[in-house]
Amino acid sequence: MVATDTKTTPSTDSVNNSGKAARFEQPVAPGRSAGTSLSTGATGADAPAGDRGRTSIADVVVVKIAGMAAREIPGVHDMGGGLSRTIGAVRDRVPGGRPNVGRGVKVEVGERQTAIDLELVVEYGVSIKELASAVRENVILAVERITGLEVVEVNIAIDDVRLPDDEDASATGADQSRVA
Questions:
Q1: 72-77, long-range: CB within 8 Å, 24+ apart, which pairs?
Q2: Nearest by Cα to 11 from 107, 143, 108
Q3: Helix (H) and strand (E) counts for the chain?
């Protein structure tokens, strides 16, 4: 007999009638992190080779996939809230620093499903409704194709709009010296 831990964590393994993820408590096995298992798999020589063992996907994997997929859509200028973008801009300028593709992405990963929240900065003039739809579709397709997890919802918050003058003002200030 195998003993299991009685500790529980929130999960998004089912969808209620409104289409939103139903949050409920799910037992966590000892020695496992919460919300990262994709499949339990089978054991023994008589199980198919592809089903032997367990597959788990860490939350950071889904964060990176969703971040990359959202950035692929034309009209998405940046991601994350104001402070997050400021820190990210400094980090991007540090030699050897890499951009944080997960900035502006929050996920909740269950056994078979995931829910994703995105914070976007859009280009001025782009239809936010069409952009949000395109981002949602691309994120869902990428996450489901790569991980096999069912995406139950992708919530999008538009935090800012990048105006055409924003880049021009920063570029002229950076390129021109104020003193001779």
A1: 72/138, 73/131, 73/134, 73/135, 73/138, 74/126, 75/122, 75/123, 75/126, 75/131, 75/134, 76/120, 76/121, 76/122, 76/123, 76/131, 76/135, 77/121, 77/122, 77/123, 77/162
A2: 108
A3: 4, 8
pTM exceeds cut of 0.70: no
pLDDT band (50, 70, 90) for residue 166? confident
CA distances from 113 to 92, 103, 151, 162, 177 (A): 32, 21, 6, 33, 53
Return the pLDDT at 90. 57
